[in-house]
């Protein structure tokens, strides 16, 4: 689907193209494809107004003024074929001057001339189909693309020579075929949509799970992530806010229904994903230019977000929703779940033209959204003006004259109007075909993570204060003005006979203490050492390491028997066992990492990054079959070390840094977001380091968590050293 100014375009009859002028309601039918049209795009200029259509066998550019004139003269309009046999095209985009067309076909992007059939450049580097591409308007040589491989690339184009640099974040120099910059994987879900914010010099991209990322394009910012927005949470928060104000989502329609958040979902219904199909500029203040009670700055940017279930308006100043239009709240709109959508960028007479296609039915709807009325009905601080409706269907009769009274049918595509005449029963319901019980994902879409996820450290002040209060009730802070402890308060014997204790660790809240022993057992005591909370046995060798999860529900242990086990505090049987076949040497150290997202394990001269899923349920018929799973993400070897003697990483908040010490007396710093070693301190001690300690702080601190990770101490046979990570000294 495509919208521009007063025109909308969509495929008909499988390989035909219909362009409709909303001002004159006059359709223009164009034919030239032999296969189904898979991508459409309007040009950026009004005179002449161009539209490009693409299918498997050809890409055609149409001049709408010339085509209209040909039809009036009684001739068949013809377009210019600019590309042939490029494959399955998912997206096309004109350059700002309409001289070039970027065609996303499969894993490649073809730069084509808009005037004749010339391939100016072929850009590859994505590992999956490219879903969107946009030209940078203030830097004419840059093109941004996103893909189902969950990365985005930026490439520079030397248009005078028709050469290309592309960056994904990948930056290519086409003249030398050299990759200049590449980003890591942004999310676990395919990236579907993309928009360039010219005012703030940012790019906005959305994925199939309702996540939105904003990256800076300012030259010295190195494409850093500015914000990460969870639209599901924002939508729920917005609905709760509207309900508290006494309004309803969809108010203004007689048969509107209030929006339900996840915690209000009726029993038997299903939570669906929220794919972001479209991101477009919103002329928010154009509709309120005569009003004085606008609550936001005039410099704030607003954007439309088109999802499968509705349209949202987001404020980039505070990353909050300003308005929500849910398809299901309007009974005269028969489409409840959209497969694709398109919006006009400019407001005409206070209204925005929207085109949506149904996910489960062969149906297309053309809508007019009254932006001002939509916002007023959902904000108590904006007074209602008149009796305007926030949503209206353009036509009260069928869009085009068809042979059938209810629809016109095309091969592979059916287009209906959003009104059903009296007596006509809708036979197919526009609802997803899913089970009404929760079904655990098989995980087949999850690829090994070569980069971490962007941590969300934006915590509300209420949550911070609540957590601090609860912690103060349980634990006493050590008084800084006091001397360090010099005598013990209690001594206990953990076994009947003398047994070495190889490791001890307190849980995050200080309530429990875990001990790993040479007799192959793990003991858990309460903090006062007055009672044994639990005893875990099962290892065939001495326990070298124990580590608590962030939520204090799990304990991971590594042993001389070359196994790793994860225990539930409430159960004596291990929830996960990784056997000897996984590791070639003794497992020296194990801990949870990235707030219980991964497990780090030291084995020989390398450490393993493991992803896992814990499931303690048992099948009566297969009670000995382990349901928990663990997969290797990546191995990180130390530089010229025979064995890792110590490892340290933060699990209390999101941190990419992992510190290791080796038998070669070196200290090495790894950045797991970049997936490589970033610094090596040779001869850190005269002897091998046997302990690394970091001030791990808390993810609920009012300060930035990174401040806690600037210093560390190392202990070896020659003494203890304090290090500054900023200078590595």
TrEMBL record:
The stretches annotated as WD repeats are 30-65, 536-569
Q: Which Pfam families match?
A: WD40
Q: Which UniProt keywords apply?
A: WD repeat
Q: Which domain of life is it from?
A: Eukaryota
Signal sequence region:
none
Record InterPro entries: Quinoprotein_ADH-like_sf, WD40/YVTN_repeat-like_dom_sf, WD40_rpt, WDR27
Tell me the SUPFAM superfamilies matching this sequence. Quinoprotein alcohol dehydrogenase-like (SSF50998), Tricorn protease domain 2 (SSF69322)
PANTHER family attached here?
WD REPEAT-CONTAINING PROTEIN 27 (PTHR44525:SF1)
What is the designated name of this protein?
Answer: WDR27 protein
Provide the taxonomic classification. Answer: Eukaryota, Metazoa, Chordata, Craniata, Vertebrata
